[in-house]
Amino acid sequence: MAIQSLLIILVILAVLLIIGVPISYAIGISSLVCILQTVPLDVSVVTGAQRIFVGMSKFSLTAIPFFILAGNLMNQGGIAKRLVDFVMAILGKLPGALLVTNVGANALFGAISGSASAAAAAVGSMVEKGEEEQGYDKALCAATNGASAPAGLLIPPSNALITYSLAAGGTSVAALFMAGYVPGILWAVCCMVVAILIAKKKGYKGLPGKFDWKNLGVCTLRALPALSLIVVVIGGIIGGIFTATEGSAIAVVYALILGICYRNITWKSFWNIVVESVKMSGMVVFLIGVSNILGWVMSFTQIPQAISEALLGLTHNPIIILLIMNVILLIAGTFMDVTPAILIFTPLFLPVVQTFGMDPVQFGLILVYNLCIGNITPPVGNTLFVSIKVGRTTLSKVMPYMLQYYIAILIGLLLVTYIPAISLWLPRGAGPILSSGFLPGRDSEAISVGSAAASVRQGHSFCMTGPVSGRYPSVNGHLPERYSKQRLFGFFSQFLHGFPIDKPIPA
Q: If you ran DSSP here, which 8-state letter would residue 478 be given?
C-alpha cells in the first residue's frame, strides 16, 4: 500500500507540474487523490482542510514573512554597493579580483536578503560595469555570479532552514542557524578557488599596489550597519535574548531604519515592498500549509517507513545510502524550488538517516545544500537564469564554466555529507550558550538543539556525541542545566570524529 500510494503521489504530482499547475495545488491534489484509496471523499477533504490550518497556525512560521520583508527592504536599501566595496577592499589583491569579490558579496548579500536570485541580480549588476571595463569574459562572470549566489541561503538568517525546522518536527532554529555558517562559507570558498584558478589561466590580475588599510577601514565603516544585521539577529537568537520569530521582526525594523537613513526608501517604495513581501509570504505560507496534507498522507500510508525499509534493504552502508539520497535530491532540485522540496523530502528521508544516528541538524544542512545546487541547475535553475540575464549572455556560453563550479560545489557537498563536524562543530560549541540562554515560557523553537535525535543509538552513532544530539529538559519554568566547562571545551576533541564506516547499521 505504501509504495502504491507513493507512486500515485509522484505520478499525479509530475503530471500536474508538467501541465503548469502551481506547486501548492499540485501537492494538495496529489495528496487527496492518494488518500481516497482508503478514506471517503468527505472525510479526506475535511481532514485536508484541517491540516492546512494546522500547518499555517504555528507561531514560529511568522519568522518567514518577516525575514522576507526584511530581505526586500535590504534589497531596496542600497546595501549591495556597500557590501561589494567592503569585499573588494579585502579580496581585491587576489587574481580575478572582481570575480572573487562577486563570490564574497553574494554570500554576504544572500545571507542578509535571504534570496539567491536577489543576490545574483543586485551584486551582479554592481560588478558588471567593472568586469566589462577590465575585459572579463561575460560568460565567466555570469557563471561566477550564478554559482556563488546560493551560498547566502545556507548562511543565516535562512528561510530554508526555518522551513526545514518546521518540516522536521521542531529541530532547533538556533542550532540550524549556527550550523549553516561553515557549509555556507565552504560553498563560497569552493567558488573562490575555481574563480582564482580560471582567472590565473586567463591572466586576470588583482588590484595593483599594496594592500590599502585606509580604504578597508572606510569600506568597513560603510558596510558595518548592514553587516550588523546578521550580528544582531543571529547573536540575539543564539544568546537567548529573543527567538527566531522575534529576531525576524527586529530585522524588519532594523532594515527599515537603515533604508530610511540611507534615503533609499520612500513611502511609495515602502508600500510596493510590503505588497511584494505579502505576495511572496502568502505563497510560501500556503505552500507550507498544503504540504501538511502531504505529511499526513505519508504518515497515514506509512510511506517513510516503506522508503526506509527499501533503502536499508539495498545496503546497510550509510555511505551508499547517503550517496543515493544526494543523487535523488540533486535530480529533484533541478525541477523543484527549495521550499516545496524541503517539505516533501524531509519526512521521506529524515527517518532513514536517523536509523543510523545522523543528527537532524546535519541532515538539514545536507538537504538545503543539495537543493541550493538545483537552484543553479537547468532546466529550472532560477538563480542561474537571473545571472545570465544580468550578464547579458547565453546558457550555452555559461555552461562550460558552470561545469567547473559544479565540480567544486559537489566536493563541498560530499564534505558536508560525510564529515559531521562541518555542520555540527559550531552548534555543539554553542550548546552551553543555547542552554543557559534559553528563556523559559517562550516559543518552543528555542527549547532543544536537534531534539528529534533523542532516539539516536549512541553506540553506533553516525554523528558526534554532544549537546546537538541530545534533548534539553522540557519547559517547566526553569532554565536547563548548564554544561560544565569540560563539556564546553570537550567538543574540540571530537572535531574530526566522523562515523564508523566499518560498522553496520544497528538492527
A: S
Own/partner contacts of 259-266, CB < 8 Å, gap of 24 or more, are: 259/73, 259/74, 259/76, 259/77, 259/78, 261/225, 262/77, 262/78, 264/76, 264/77, 264/78, 265/73, 265/76, 265/77
Mean pLDDT estimate for the chain: 77
What is the number of domains present in the chain?
1
How many CA atoms lie within 13 Å of 303's alpha carbon, on the beta-carbon side? 26
**Residue range of the domain that includes 455:** 423-494
Residues of the chain scoring pLDDT < 50: 433, 435-507
pLDDT score, position 1: 66
Count how many residues are written for the chain.
507
Question: How far is Cα 163 from Cα 150, in angstroms, rounded to an integer?
Answer: 16
Nearest to 325 by CA among 291, 358, 288: 358
Q: Given this model, what pLDDT does residue 130 score?
A: 83
Angle, CA 105 vertex, CA 102 and CA 109 arms, to 5°: 135
Per-residue model confidence (pLDDT) at position 430: 66
Residue 323 lies in a domain: no
Residue showing cell 518552543? 444
DSSP secondary structure letter of residue 241: S
Number of H helices, E strands in the chain: 23, 0
Say if residues 183 and 422 touch (Cβ distance below 8 Å): yes
Cβ proximity of 298 and 347 under 8 Å = yes
| 146 contacts 120 by C-beta, under 8 angstroms | yes
DSSP string, 327-341: HHHHHHHTTS-HHHH
**Would you say the C-alpha torsion 205, 207, 209, 212 has a positive or negative sign?**
negative
pLDDT in the model for residue 489: 36
Give the max Cα distance, the chain. 76
Cβ–Cβ under 8 Å, residues 487 and 432: yes
One-letter amino acid of 56? M
Q: Residue 223 domain-assigned? A: no
Residue 438 forms part of a structural domain: yes
- Residue 434 is predicted with a pLDDT of 52
Is 458 among the domain residues? yes
Interatomic CA distance for residues 26 and 294, integer angstroms: 11
pLDDT at 401: 94
